[in-house]
């Protein structure tokens, strides 16, 4: 039973992703997915938080367009969920943007919408600077932390803790995204004892909150040797009794299910036999974590 808990479309993330939402769902069906979550990036509230490709005629006009686009996404997602209900189960959510603590109440207000099943708790910024957009932004954030990767990683995991404590997300996105543009993105983070302490601290919070930590295969298509999170982190989380979920973090039809085989192999090599999917039990927002065997995911992918 193939599924993904994290995806984006060009229709509602223009410039950041590609393709219409309906075509992405059709692609997921064709590739053997039985469940697929629609989780576009949330709107932001300040012009300072726009990415370069989002800046149009004016900063304020760009910002003013984001909430109507989010509302249009929810309407279209509900329509598509009904249209394809006999072929695939669709969850509707969004990816949270923990840029600063003041975003917490706004994220929770978006999550309270009756059509939203859940949201992904993610951190893409440190010191309000994107850390996965390009090397120039990454270096700017690193300099704001004191000039080293280790100091930036420390600030990243502290910001992640703030997010976890404030939002208690059902799904935690790309836990160690901070690795992507680092000098040594594939290093074992146990080499930095103080960073590892913060990683263990955050993992413990996720377990205590009953959150799902995603194995995010997008790290593989971006050139990293392991998915998010890396082996040592995933292994530690599993030993804590944590529950993993599975995401392609696709940004268009070309990425639906990309590297899922490698991600499943990665989990099997760690001794895992299942991941968990959020499923509706017939009551609005009453989502339960249901185990899905890794062998069943492999066998259903096309």
From TrEMBL:
The lineage of its organism: Eukaryota, Fungi, Dikarya, Ascomycota, Pezizomycotina. InterPro entries: Histidinol_P_phosphatase_HisJ, PHP_dom, Pol/histidinol_Pase-like. PANTHER family: HISTIDINOL PHOSPHATASE-RELATED (PTHR21039), HISTIDINOL-PHOSPHATASE (PTHR21039:SF0). It catalyses: L-histidinol phosphate + H2O = L-histidinol + phosphate. Its EC number is 3.1.3.15. One of its GO terms (cellular component) is cytoplasm. It is an enzyme of class 3 (hydrolase). It comes from Calycina marina. The keyword Hydrolase applies. Residues 5-218 form the PHP domain. One of its GO terms (molecular function) is histidinol-phosphatase activity. Transmembrane segments: none annotated. It comes from the Eukaryota. GO terms for biological process: L-histidine biosynthetic process. Pathway: Amino-acid biosynthesis; L-histidine biosynthesis; L-histidine from 5-phospho-alpha-D-ribose 1-diphosphate: step 8/9. Belongs to the PHP hydrolase family. HisK subfamily. It holds the Pfam family PHP. Keywords: Amino-acid biosynthesis, Histidine biosynthesis, Hydrolase. SUPFAM superfamilies: PHP domain-like. Gene3D superfamilies: Metal-dependent hydrolases. This is Histidinol-phosphatase.
């Amino acid at each position: 039973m193939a599924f993904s808990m994290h995806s984006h479309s060009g229709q509602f993330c223009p410039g950041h992703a590609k393709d219409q939402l309906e075509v992405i769902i059709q692609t997921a069906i064709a590739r053997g997915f039985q469940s697929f979550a629609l989780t576009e990036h949330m709107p932001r509230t300040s012009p300072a938080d726009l990415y370069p490709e989002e800046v149009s005629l004016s900063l304020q006009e760009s910002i003013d367009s984001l909430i109507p686009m989010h509302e249009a996404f929810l309407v279209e997602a509900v329509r598509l969920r009904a249209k394809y209900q006999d072929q695939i189960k669709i969850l509707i959510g969004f990816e949270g943007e923990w840029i600063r603590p003041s975003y917490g109440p706004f994220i929770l207000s978006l999550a309270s919408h009756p059509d939203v099943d859940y949201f992904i708790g993610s951190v893409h910024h440190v010191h309000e600077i994107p850390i996965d957009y390009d090397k120039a932004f990454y270096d700017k954030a690193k300099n704001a932390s004191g000039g080293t990767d280790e100091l930036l990683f420390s600030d990243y995991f502290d910001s992640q803790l703030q997010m976890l404590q404030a939002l208690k997300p059902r799904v935690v996105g790309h836990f160690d995204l901070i690795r992507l543009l680092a000098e040594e993105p594939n290093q074992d983070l146990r080499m930095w004892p103080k960073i590892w302490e913060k990683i263990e601290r955050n993992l413990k919070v996720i377990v205590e909150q009953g959150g799902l930590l995603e194995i995010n295969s997008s790290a593989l298509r971006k050139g990293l040797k392991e998915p998010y999170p890396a082996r040592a982190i995933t292994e530690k989380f599993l030993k804590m009794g944590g529950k993993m979920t599975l995401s392609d973090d696709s940004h268009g039809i070309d990425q639906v299910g990309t590297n899922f085989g490698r991600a499943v192999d990665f989990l099997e090599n760690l001794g895992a036999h299942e991941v968990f999917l959020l499923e509706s039990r017939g009551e609005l927002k009453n989502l339960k974590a249901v185990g899905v065997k890794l062998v069943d995911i492999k066998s259903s992918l096309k």
